[in-house]
Amino acid sequence: MILSLAFVLATQADQATVIEVRSMTPRRVAVECVVKLPELNLREEKALAAAIAAMEMGTRRHSADTMQDLLDGQRPEISQFTDHIRISLLGPRDGTSSALSILFGLTNQTGFELKSIAALEATAKERIGQGYWSRFYQAKIDGRALTIGEIEATYNKVFRRNQMVITVSGAPSTVEPTQMWQAMERNWQKRNVLFREAPSVPAEVDAYGPTTVGLKAPEFAWGGQGPARLLATIALGSGKGSALFHSWRQRKGWTYVQECAWLPTKSGFQPVFAGITANPANVAELEPWRVALLEEIERWTEEDRTRALGFANGIWKNGIGFSPFLGSADRTLTTSPSDQAYLLAYWFAKTGAVFETDRFLSLLESTDLEALKATAKELVSGAEIVRIGS
Amino acid sequence: MILAATFLLALQAEPPRLRTQLPNRATILVERLPAADYVSVQLWINSASFSDRFSTHGYRHLLEHFQAKGFDNRLDYRLESKGMLLDAETTRDAIKFGIRCQPSQVRLAIQAIGDVLRPRLVSKTDIEIESNIIREELALRAAFSQLSADAWLKAFGESGLDPYGNPDVLSKADPTDLQNTWVEMTSPENLALVVAGNVEIDPTTELVKNLLGARKAVSSVTVKADRRGLNDTMAKRGSVIASKVGSFREPGTAARIAAGLAIANLVPGTYFQYGPSNVPGLVLVGSDEKSINWVDIVVRENPDNHFSVAKKLVDRWVEIQTTDPAKVAALRGRLLAQSPSLRPETLLENLRTLTVEQFRDAWKSFNVEVRS
Fold first, then answer.
1. Smallest CA–CA separation between B354 and chain A, in Å?
2. ipTM of the prediction greater than 0.85, yes or no
3. Superfamily grouping for domain B240-370
4. Which chain B residue has the Cα nearest residue A76?
5. Does the global pTM surpass 0.95?
């Protein structure tokens, strides 16, 4: 559910865009920053992941402990996608200035905590393509060792003011967030990276055991067919009334977990339908997973379209969760104030428009049953089937 | 004067709520949260009399799966068409069914709870399929969840069995036995229904009364939860550190929650787990990573240095438990299902008044590791 009062207040070419959302009874201030990514090669992707790992360890302005203290016990969360970076800060109600100051420190004037570059490399490899959903990108990792100069150069290439959209969601204050940010931006430096001390070596992470079956539908740009594809995605994969649940779980008994998401890509989105199984017999052949879904689509009636529309309403108006949009590499968006603020920033960065719930939902309603079935068949028939895990 | 003023402020800050115990001993609680943007309707079924044993391990979980589907297997379908969502959970003490909805949909949500309560007679084939789904569910558990189950079993033996169940036992369950168990388990004295959100208290209470008031007691025998510790120490295996706690009402429990949150904060990506209960349990901190030496962290770190952040983490934990409708309903429902007299205020007050000395002692109680 998106708060209704959203103002886009700064859109100058050399500045970050700031969106203010005013809530009457906020308990927290949510500051969300989306940084649109330029074209990056494999090596730069790894360097960026290493830079993010270093950013989380503290900045020249604020140590990791100070950031946590200013954010009332929370830590900044930074997620890397193929088309953008998400920086998520949740602070106390009167903490807008501190949160923006932390954001400024992270995106400019960062001090990397570094002695062993190998430690950052290890963390970077874990970040790329290891999240629950980001595994579907099946990212390649450049194996050669990074240099400090490469991390610095990538950091400076990525964190540019005019590529940033910031949403500040909280109570009205005497100094508006846009003014606060613009005052900080006056001290923005073109190149400013500092290295110091060593981080601890990250612990080994177990590989995820069971097998994931994923249907990766063709990638497309949000536009004319977007709403129909979104409704078809929900009908296929969101909720216990979905085709995935009925087919893969209830009829076949193949999975306990089955869900869908739209992976962000450079050109738009890629719908993914996933199920996880621990029984090797279930994945001896993958094509039956597609066939089962196609059979389910054939059974759809007007009730299925109504359910999908109801579920979409539930996601974006009633806050039931299970949005197909990602909140991080591991999870889809929730209705927390942070995730709502992030969606505003991301949708603006991606489409150039403010996300308006009612208008968005009305777009979905124009898809009738036949169009819904045809779109769903197209998504499933055209999907690449992948197997991830043992 | 200052104390009195503080007390008055605290009273004013309390959201209005009404707890009602019906003549048939079912409990209702409606809490009005004017700032909430949704309503949580939760049915909590005390299953202390039906706790898991090796021979029936997972029956409650299996029943949760079946009953959540509704009498015609289409309850989710009906709710989702209205933008509502049902979730269900089986804990060691109870089974929960929760519905998230808008204030205007509370009547529908309560009707759906009535649907969940209707006994179903499933087939042997249904049991076979659902046992396999639970087998899949078990296989997908996070490492932390498995370690947690190990820790509970070690600490409490058969009475600490994890609620997931044993698929081999479940596949042999008899349909009629399951149905009878459900009928007995949902005898009104075992039911607590909580509604939390921006709702009117009196009309909402009436709606729930209409649902639960006519239910008749099935069995006069109510067995209290019995969870006695088999031993006070756990074997050193796994990447979990745990502290045994008594009732949620004891000050030591609050201190261990604070210490657990602070210890979890020291390692990114760490889990913290505690479910308030009137019977002994565990506060657990752990990670999917095996290489973390929890004992070393607890011994090396000076708890005094973490008291300040612990207070902030506790404040945040309490804020979430007392303002988010689903958390509010879960905290109160979980306790009311155990006894209508149980209220979380003692725990919240103990957390608010936590001293550094209590925190220090609680920190030291996390001295036993479990490693897989």
1. 17
2. no
3. Metalloenzyme, LuxS/M16 peptidase-like (3.30.830.10)
4. B268
5. no
